[in-house]
Write a structure and sequence with these properties.
homodimer
Chain lengths: 279, 279
């Protein structure tokens, strides 16, 4: 894939990394950045993640591909706004952590003939801002692409080609299957990290060592962004929490019964799962 | 502090790091390693963590300080066995993650005139074996030293000097206060990490990205070692779980009520706590 113009809406960690990767891989001749904060756009330009910045309408009008890397609760309205000025050859996609709510809104409001395909690169972190962007962020990471019944094969292929060109492996999932999966792999773990962090009294802060830091790291993520994610995916999160409760009660029961052989089996099973993920 | 002979019982990640740090800092002339597995002791010697290996009785007889870095459920019996051959000038200490059960057993069975002071360097990880040992492991890390009513000032001072010489900051706590604190900062987070790992179905393994890996990393720890820790500290762990439940129900309630402003406040508070810990 070779693009004339790539437009990135929201040039933070993910948007900035898309710009840097696109440059490094020679994917796009020109990368246009769009954002609310001029200072952030300037930093992104200095870092080489974007070439120029424009307003949304102007940036999307010229784009071969426009990717929305903004908070999940604004993506749909930005996509619909962009659709008014973009050409029918423009591919619109996103990097949001939820998919069903965004696709539902977009497909309801989108003008005929404009193409949006939902995407989610699994490459975020608790950091934010273009200064944490990395040209290699997508290497060997999975991007989930979530076509619906209304998405054409050609649009899916272009979206897959886009993320593949940035270094990512692509997995195709239905939006609702995506949302259920990331509720388990990301949203509920985020919730637990936040709960564990909140339960730490100030007096014990000195004693929080490597294990606590790892386990709670994601709780440093932006509360506004994460509130939007939980709002959009609350159904799947509630289901995933039920699944976690069932697992949790097996551990609690072993502790309550002082059944150390059962607890050891549970810890062994957990280690097996974790070891399979690598470091 | 300068020691003639330092004996390390259990030369894994922690024991090996004590040996390497003692060598690097010139703390001990000779470092003797004790362990069940000859291959591990040989690796530790090759890595420079110990000079020689001996059996427990022989190694402790010569020691100025002997430090027990074995699983928590064997420390007390090893200390008591060592006490039979060691001199009254020998300081016995340990690196176990629990303190009250160990001290209770040791003080009940210890011969008159032999000194044991409980210690816990907060420097463990999910890794194990001397190949993961690090001479700088204790730099800027906290070691908790847990004297009881029976511990002399002189013994406390020597124990503090020992860990300080290895690069550690030392905090003095009562054994039961230690156990309650680490239940919150380490044992319950470990449990949650194991629960999260266990709840990951095989089909979603591909989708477990950085956040999931961080949150569950400690679940790769040795199940036998962790079962021993939970067994010895089950009372404090149960209390810490109650505290976590109370925190958890605030998050659940916000989700159930779709009260996004409340959820955002909770996530903001969690971020504040996590940010204060640094990366």
């Amino acid at each position: 894939m070779r693009l004339g113009t790539l437009t990135i809406v929201g040039v933070g960690l993910i948007g900035g990394s898309i710009g840097l990767a696109a440059k490094k891989k020679g994917l796009a001749e020109t990368v246009i950045g769009v954002g609310r904060q001029q200072a952030t756009l300037e930093r992104a330009r200095t870092l080489g993640a974007i070439d120029v910045c424009l307003d949304l309408a102007g940036a999307v009008r010229q784009a071969d591909v426009a990717v929305f890397c903004t908070p999940v609760d604004v993506i749909a309205s930005q996509v619909v706004a962009a659709a008014k000025t973009c050409s029918t050859r423009t591919l619109l996609t996103d990097a949001g952590s939820t998919k069903e709510a965004i696709l539902c809104d977009v497909e309801r409001l989108m003008p005929q003939g404009i193409t949006f395909v939902g995407s989610h690169p699994l490459a975020g972190s608790e950091k934010h801002g273009p200064e944490h962007a990395d040209a290699n962020l997508f290497e060997n990471r999975v991007t989930i692409v979530t076509p619906t019944e209304r998405t054409s094969e050609a649009a899916i292929e272009r979206t897959v080609a886009f993320w593949t060109a940035l270094g990512s492996r692509v997995k195709i999932m239905h939006p609702s299957a995506h949302d259920q999966a990331v509720a388990v792999t990301s949203h509920v773990p985020h919730l637990m990290a936040a709960v564990l962090a909140s339960a730490l009294p100030d007096t014990l802060r000195d004693l929080a060592a490597g294990g606590f830091r790892d386990t709670t790291r994601v709780a440093a993520g932006d509360p506004a962004i994460w509130t939007g994610i939980f709002e959009q995916n609350c159904g799947a999160v509630a289901q995933a929490l039920e699944r976690l409760d069932a697992e949790m009660s097996r551990f609690r029961q072993a502790l309550a019964n002082r059944d150390w052989s059962a607890l050891r089996q549970l810890l062994t099973q957990a280690k097996k799962v974790r070891d399979a993920l690598g470091s």
